[in-house]
Amino acid sequence: MRDLFLSHGHLDHALGLPFLLSHRAMQSRSAVTRIYCPEPVADRIERFIAAGLEIDACTGNFELRGLEPGERVGLGRDFDVEAFATEHPVPSLGYHLWRRRTRLATEYEGLEETEIARLRRSGVEVTAASRELLVSYCGDTGPAVFRRDTRLFGATLLMVEATYIDDGLRDRGREFGHMHLEDLAAVADRFDNRAIVLHHLSRRHRLEELRRAVDERLPEIAERVHVWGLDGAPARGASR
Ligand SMILES: [Zn+2]
């Protein structure tokens, strides 16, 4: 992977960075890995990676850039990534992956191809740019993210955390900036996504528990929900 987007500096997310770079340097000495992270922690992340590579006696090449919410990074001709604000006790970002497209402008739809070609030759701009939101990845976040960026509900694929399931853990989610299943239930009717991947489940729970809880408590979206780490497709006709 040439480009790596880090949501925040908590070690369950960031600890593997020096190892990834060291591994990539072994595969290709000239490969430069581009790492993006929240701007307020960029310095510390850079020192952390550099220390890891030094201990490993490795010369992994990397460029690190801190991002603020709203900043964009181009990835080749067709894609770009946009950072967005999430809700976590440390500086954190989520990332949207956009696909750029050029389409025939609506006013020229239905015209014969020869006519469109004639217009193009005469210098008329017959195309219009559009963008498709392919993936929204929320990193670690509490439910405020749904108010901060409502475009999440329209991403083709939404990756959102579901850390807690039990009723007794509602306050823990609020305190640590994590999502409780009830937070997802509260906005379940707004998910327009083709698929929703739930990740970051607390070790207090098992993946199968989350799957069951989704089938029982979020029946309206259960068929589109996938539990990260659990094999197989979403249960169909699951007991409700
Ligand atoms: Zn975290």
Overview of this structure, please?
The protein has 240 residues and is α/β, with parallel strands linked by helices. It has two domains: 67 residues, no CATH class; 172 residues, 4-Layer Sandwich (Metallo-beta-lactamase, Chain A), CATH 3.60.15.10. Helices cover 28% and strands 27% of the residues. It has eight helices and ten strands. Strands 4-5-6-7-8-9-10 form a seven-stranded mixed beta sheet, covered by helices on one side. Strand 4 and strand 5 form a beta hairpin. The chain is flat, with a radius of gyration of 21 Å. The two termini are 41 Å apart. The chain binds zinc ion. Zinc ion binds next to loops.
Please outline the helices and strands.
Layout lengths: L2 E3 L5 H4 L2 H11 L4 E7 L3 H14 L5 E7 L4 E4 L3 E7 L7 E12 L8 H9 L5 E11 L7 H4 L8 E5 L8 H7 L4 H6 L8 E5 L7 H11 L7 E3 L13
Parallel strand pairs: 1-2, 2-3, 7-8, 8-9, 9-10
Antiparallel strand pairs: 4-5, 5-6, 6-7
Helix pairs in contact: 2-3
The site of zinc ion has 4 residues, from loops.
Summarize, please:
The protein contains eight helices and ten strands. With 240 residues, the protein is of the alpha/beta class.
